[in-house]
Amino acid sequence: MNIFLNIIWFVFGGLMVAVEYAISSVAMMLTIIGIPFGLQTLKLAKVALWPFGTEVVDDGWPSGCLAGVMNVVWWFVGGVPIALTHMLWGLIFCVTVVGIPFGMQHFKLMKLALFPFGTKVS
């Protein structure tokens, strides 16, 4: 079932979102300071490309204070608008019963967009 849902996601916007994340990741990696943020955007691209069957899990508390500081910087750089966009799409998809699985994937992307540092995708 996950493969079928992933194919639907891929065809109806998942590829476009993943390509946008990948392009922004390359743009961020043009500077040395932007490399950590570009790597986190690649994490978003991976989930946006094939979200069903992937989980976003916390690395646990010992990820360090640097992850917290980087998350705060991430919020100001663009994490909050990305998360709000995924929240909007999640709410729109959850209006219908058929769209609920897709809305839940947007909520997963919203969580990752808010806190990319200190999390991993499995």
Automatic annotation (TrEMBL):
Origin: domain of life: Bacteria
UniProt KW Transmembrane keyword: yes
A single GO cellular-component term on record: plasma membrane
Keywords for the protein's UniProt record, in alphabetical order: Membrane, Transmembrane, Transmembrane helix
Domain Inner membrane component: 4-53, 69-118
Transmembrane segments: 7-35, 72-102
Keyword Transcription annotated: no
InterPro entries: Inner_membrane_protein (IPR052937), UCP028777 (IPR031308), YccF (IPR005185)
Cross-referenced NCBIfam families: PRK11770.1-2
The protein's name in its UniProt record: YccF domain-containing protein
Taxonomic path: Bacteria, Pseudomonadati, Bacteroidota, Bacteroidia, Bacteroidales
